[in-house]
Amino acid sequence: MSRRWPWQDRALRRWCACLSAVVVAGMGLSCARSKVGGTEVRVLLDFSRSFAPFDASDERVLKVVAESIATLAADRWEPPVRTVWQRINEASLGAVPECGPLEFEPRLTGSGGDRKAELRSKLLDCVQGIAERSRDPAQTSAYTDIGAAIRLAVEEGGGATRRRIMVVYSDLREDLPPGRKPVEFRLSGQEVVLIHRPGRSAEDTLVVQHLQMVDHWKQRLVRAGAASVVAIPAPFLADSRLMRGIEGPSFGVTVGFALLVDCDLTGEPEVARIGKVLAQHVVRATDSSVVNVGILREPFQVRDWLPPIRWVSSLTHRVKDSDPGVFQQVLNGLIEGVGRRAAPGRAAATAGLRWVTAGLQYDTERHLIVISRFRETAVQEGLAFPGQTNVILVAQPDRSDASAPESFFRRLDGWRAVLKRAGATVRCRLQLKYVSETQLEKCLQTASSQGDLP
C-alpha cells in the first residue's frame, strides 16, 4: 500500500465533509478551500552586474532549484504549492516576476507523476529564459538592493499560507545607489535558503571575506524573524543537499566526498589514480553520495570548483551518472578537467578547506582527501567541521623540504592538530608518490570506524 501524507488525509476529510453537506442539503454545492494551508516558495535571483550574467554553472544551479521544487511539491509539501521567481537588482521593488506565479496541487484522481512532470517542465522553461535574459546587459543593473527584494517577497506573498520558503541566489553583496538607505524587512517564520558564490570582480574572490558576508546575512535574517537559514555554496549544490537543507536531517541520507588538490599538483599521475580509487569506493560502499573536486589556490576562484556529481544506487530512483561505469568516467573527467584548469597561483589549503566545510555541512557524513604540499602554517580561525568529518592527508614535500625534512613533518603535525581541534578525524596520512590503491582503499574503508590516526 502506498504511503499517505498528512495533507492527503486532510484533503480526503474535506472532500467527505463537502459530500456530506451536498447530501444533507439536497443541492449541488462546492467545497471552499481552507483559508489556511499550502506552501509558498519564493526564489530571488541576483541580476546585478557583480553577479550576472548567468553562465553554464549558474544555469545548473537554477535547474537544481527547479527540479527540487518540483520533487518536493509532488512528494512532500502541503498543497497548494505556489512558486514565484523574482529579481534582485537596483530596482527590486519594481521588478516583474521572472517566473510565475505557478501553482501545483495534486488531483484526487489521475497521475500525480504527470502533474509533477508538468511543473518541472514549466520551471525548466523559466530557467532557460532567466539565463538568457541575464546575458542581456540591458536586463542587469549596476547596483544590488537585496533588502528591497526580500521586503517585496514578504509583502506580496504569504498571506494565510502555512509554510513559506525563500531561496536566494546571490553573492550577497548589497551595493546600493548613492544616497539610498537600506530597506528594513521583517520576516514571519520564513525558511530561508542562501545559495551563494563570490561575485565576478577580483575583490570578491577571497573566500574568507565572502563567507563572512554569508554569516552576516544569516544573522540578519534570523534577527528579522526567519525560522531557519540554510547556506550552501553554489559549486556544492546538488538536489539531495538542497532538499535535505530545506526538509531537515530526517530527509534521506547523503554522503559527501571532496577531493582537494594543490594547484601545482593537479597534473601528477598519482592524482588520477586516487580519483579512480575514490570512484570505485563510492560505487561499492555508498547508496547515495555527492562528489566534489576542486583546486586549492589563493586567491580563491569559483572556476576552481567543478560541478558535483551524484551517485545513487537504486532501482527505483534513476539519477544521471548512476551507472557505475558512467559515474567513474565522469569523475575521471572532472579530475582531468581540474588539471586543465590549473593555472599559476599560490597553493592554499586553508581557504579551500573553509569553502569545503561550508559546502558539505548538510551531508550525513563527510570525507575529504586533501592532496597538498601544506606549505602554509595551519590556521584554525574560521575552520569548523560539522558532524562526522573524516580526512585523508596526502602530502608531497616541497623542494626546499629536502634540506629541512623536520620542517615538512612539523607542518603536517600542525595540520593534523588543527583539523582535529576543528572537529575532523584524520584517518590516514600518506605520501603522494608512495600511495597504493590498496592503501587508499583501506583508508576509505576505515572512515566508518572510530578514533583518530594513531
What would your notes on this structure say?
- The protein has 454 residues and is an alpha/beta fold.
- The termini are far apart.
- The protein is built from eleven helices and twelve strands.
- α2 packs antiparallel against α3 (112-134).
- Helix content is 38%, strand content 19%.
- α10 links the parallel β11 and β12 (425-431).
- The strands form two sheets. Strands 3-2-1-4-5-6 form a six-stranded mixed sheet, with helices on both faces. Strands 9-8-7-10-11-12 form a six-stranded mixed sheet, with helices on both faces.
Number of helices: 11
In whole angstroms, how far apart are the ends?
Answer: 50 Å
Number of strands: 12
Largest sheet: 6 strands, mixed
Portion of residues within helices? 25-40%
Radius of gyration: 24 Å
Class based on secondary structure composition and strand pairing: alpha/beta
| Shape type | globular
